[in-house]
Amino acid sequence: MGAQLRVYKRRIKSVTATKKITKAMEMIAASRIVKAQRQVAASTPYATELTRAVTAVATGSTTKHALTTEAESPVRAAVLLVTSDRGLAGGYSSNAIKAAERLTERLRGEGKEVDAYIVGRKGVAYYGFRERKVTESWTGFTDNPTYADAKKVAAPLIAAVQQDTAEGGVDELHIVFTEFVSMLTQTPVANRLLPLSLEQAAEEAGTKGEILPLFDFEPSAEDVLDALLPRYVESRIYNALLQAAASKHAATRRAMKSATDNAGDLIKSLSRLANAARQAEITQEISEIVGGASALADATAGSDN
Asked: Which residues of 262-283 are buried (b: 16+ CB within 10 A; e: fewer)?
């Protein structure tokens, strides 16, 4: 009984230490969510106004450009998948990967080749384990992305869009990330960044149904679109990275809270078992004492006779 009680005490001590760690991680994730939410809110006005500018240029000219014009027969698409560098976030990364797999399957079903671009060690490890080709990958900044990180990710994607498909370029650019809806809800989404649908752009910019003013473009509408293309892609990728970071922290907080609650339940269960073992040990000791006293009393009575 004594050995069993020691086992329970060791397990309670171990689980208590784990509970302290998961509680601390929950609090850290909660504090990071607030910062990530502020960054998402701060990046939204710039992205909205940029989309308005693209919509105005596209609707005010007849210029064919990679930003707004779909290829007649698209043959290759780039898919940017945003995952996490770290685990302990429940199904955060796996859900994003599943969304990317569904998108890839759909694009291939349409007869398009797919070039994979990965952000985050979880996505890189997933593709590496399955020996799948990754065109380019980035790691080390998913918890706290900056605009410089977004520019670094956007550069090869913009180059691929501007390049001819015969030379390795792409006709479409898609991004898969986890959208932060609320503290309790984070949803994996797959959006097409390029070519941009004018109806989608008008909806995002809040100009759907509005009559946009006419503009004169200097030096030309094509040059304006060339200048807006990298800014648009960078801003959208930056916003997606921020959304993904906020979602990851929320998923971590939820996972760590669940782990903390489970640790508390396990401690209660182990404490009950330890108390039962202690009571059994005490009962056994009392029984041994009573039995010994009874045997001594019988021996004394026999000697008196």
From this structure: ebeebbeebeebbeebbeeeee
